[in-house]
Amino acid sequence: MARILSIQSHVVSGYVGNRAATFPLQLLGHEVDVINTVQFSNHTGYNAVRGDRFSASHVLDLFDGLQTNGLDAYTHLLTGYMGNSDNVRAVECIAQKLKHKLPQLTFVVDPVLGDDGALYVPRELIALYRDVLCPLATLVTPNQFEAELLTNTKITSLYTAKSACDELHRIGVPNVVITSAVLDSASGDHTLHLIGSELCLESGAKHQFAIAFPRLSGYYTGTGDLFAALLLAHYATLAPQFAALGALARACELATATLAGIMQATKLHQESTLVNVAANLPRGSRPNAMVRGFELRIIPSRHLISNPTPSFQSFSI
């Protein structure tokens, strides 16, 4: 059982950030404590959002309280949406303190920068993630756009995806998962690829792999947060069982199976609402009834979390 500190966003209603991560991690048998970088009424796909973004001093003050009371015996650290450079620096400080206490700490960084060609955060965070958090990380989980920003590599094929992974290895990250990428291939944009790469820092041995899975149409939010949590949960369980490389690929198969199932359940639920879904609607212009229909069906799909059946197999690249 892992003891996890999760530092990311929080919403009152819906499933993104810590709301998407906590229940799956707990259901898979791990202890989770959370520090929220924001507290919003709902995610930003809705027409209106209320709430506050928390300062780095707030984040550090909460961690200081944990330290003071001896409540900081974490085996894993998970980070998601930071929003500003000060919070990235706060996470750097927390990671260093936890690594000092437990050098073998597993640090999973979801570098939330943007998606589909659009940045969600100030551009200065790109360099901070690359130069500050990535060298401390055990595993990073960027999407295609984020991996391109972090490595200055245009990802169009499995070859260029491998090159991006290698650049992140060069920075100091032993485990890389590009969670979803649209590649130039005969399948067009109807298929997404996950690309993973695990590097043994001692021997230099490397295992690179991919998983192909169908792309579902719709406006899903929180899928990256959910995937990072699922991947951490399975990797924490599997890593001690593998004497060599291979744990990351298996963890990705399990996490992908759960995520695909939850997204399919969400799509079916949205269709049952009979709310029309128009294509290419920007954030802030999507009808709230439609956005609500696409809230991830995590609780009704808990069987898919606790008992995933891998339907998409990894293959070496």
Oligomer: single chain
Number of DSSP-assigned strands: 12
The percentage of residues in β strands lies in 15-25%
Helicity level: 25-40%
Helix-strand makeup class: alpha/beta
Describe, in plain words, how this protein is organized in 3D:
The chain has about 325 residues and is of the alpha/beta class. Helices cover about 40% and strands about 20% of the residues. It has helices spanning about 15-25, 55-70, 85-100, 125-135, 145-150, 160-170, 225-240, 245-270, 290-295, 300-305, and strands spanning about 5-10, 30-40, 50-55, 75-80, 105-110, 115, 120, 140, 175-180, 190-200, 205-215, 315. The strands form two sheets. Strands 3-2-1-4-5-8-9-10-11-12 form a ten-stranded mixed sheet, sandwiched between helices. The protein has a two-stranded antiparallel sheet with strand order 6-7. Strand 1 (about 5-10), helix 1 and strand 2 form a beta-alpha-beta unit. Helix 1 packs parallel to helix 7 (about 225-240), helix 5 (about 145-150) packs across helix 6 (about 160-170) and helix 7 (about 225-240) runs antiparallel to helix 8 (about 245-270). The chain is globular. The relative contact order is 0.13.
Please tag this protein with its features:
single chain; 317 residues; alpha/beta; 10-stranded mixed β-sheet; two-stranded antiparallel ribbon; 40% helix; globular
Quick structural summary:
The protein is of the alpha/beta class and 317 residues long. The chain has 10 helices and 12 strands.
How does the SSE layout of this entry go?
Elements: E1 3-11, H1 17-27, E2 31-40, E3 51-53, H2 56-68, E4 76-79, H3 85-101, E5 106-109, E6 114-115, E7 118-119, H4 124-133, E8 139-140, H5 144-151, H6 158-171, E9 175-181, E10 191-199, E11 206-214, H7 223-238, H8 247-272, H9 288-293, H10 302-306, E12 315-316
